Amino acid sequence: NADYPLEFYNFFKEIGCHYIQFAPIVERVFGHQDGRHLASLADREEVAELADFSISPEQWGNFLCTLFDEWVKKDVGTYYIQLFDSTLANWIGEQPGVCSMAKTCGHAGVMEFNGDVYSCDHFVFPEYKLGNIYQKTLVEMMYSDKQQAFGQMKQQSLPTQCRECEWLFACNGECPKNRFARTASDEPGLNYLCKGYHRFFSHVAPYMDFMKNELMNQRPPANVMNFIKQ
Fold first, then answer.
1. Rounded to whole angstroms, how far apart are CA atoms 41 and 47?
2. Are strands 80-81 and 116-118 parallel, antiparallel or unpaired?
3. Catalytic residues
4. What pLDDT score was predicted for residue 192?
5. Would you put residue 25 in left (φ > 0), alpha (ψ -120 to 50) or beta?
6. Is 133 left (phi over 0), alpha (psi -120 to 50) or beta?
């Protein structure tokens, strides 16, 4: 769908879907002795190869900007796109409502069929296993030191380029699972999709500023559609 943002969007509008969430497919491949083929964040970037079905940063940026341009002209307040809503939330200093855009994470644990619990649904790998529901309670595992450290790692592991970026408040480095690229100064930990997000935030900034001002003055952000027409 990456190269067809408007077709993608219009399809969901045609079937009456007013709440839309989309996630960029980004995976790396690396063979493990236990038979696994997908790489985790713990696998160094030099040993893992980007899967050919992954979206490129350029595709992601174009997808978001093209879809936003369509949405902001006529669909604000009628169709709710999670990433746009979360961006606006960060713009006004509220919780974004989705872990990938928040400062910290660690609240989206996952349980497998056998009771094994992992730190996150993007981190179902041996190194991120918290325990098993037959031996520990969910409270013990989700509030364990290991899980707390996992959640804080999102903010603490940001490279200098991110910490100095004008859009840090908006993306917070996005999901740690995608932080396997290197910065311009060769520092590890840059989000693979950084270029796409940077383009998106730069593109939507004037509209986000307007909607923020409307909200701060207790007016509906949907007024941005009239602003555009004028």
1. 11
2. unpaired
3. 121
4. 96
5. beta
6. alpha
Angle between helices 57-74 and 5-14 (to 10 degrees): 40
**Is the Cβ–Cβ distance between 191 and 173 less than 8 Å?**
yes
CA dihedral 87, 160, 142, 192 (to 10 degrees): 60
Give the start-end residues of each E strand in 177-218: 181-182, 188-190
Locate 148 and state its tokens.
Answer: 């707390």
Q: Which residues of the chain have pLDDT under 70?
A: 45-46
Helix (H, G, I), strand (E, B), or coil: what is residue 131?
Answer: strand
Q: How far are the Cα atoms of 128, 199, 228 from residue 190, in angstroms, in the given order?
A: 20, 15, 34
What pLDDT is stored for residue 46 in this prediction? 67
Amino acid 203 reads H
In 3D space, the residue among 183, 207, 205, 209 whose CA is nearest the CA of residue 194 turns out to be: 183
Cα 130 to chain centroid, rounded: 23
Q: Where are the beta strands (DSSP E) in the chain?
A: 19-20, 28-29, 49-50, 80-81, 110-111, 116-118, 129-132, 181-182, 188-190
pLDDT on residue 129: 97
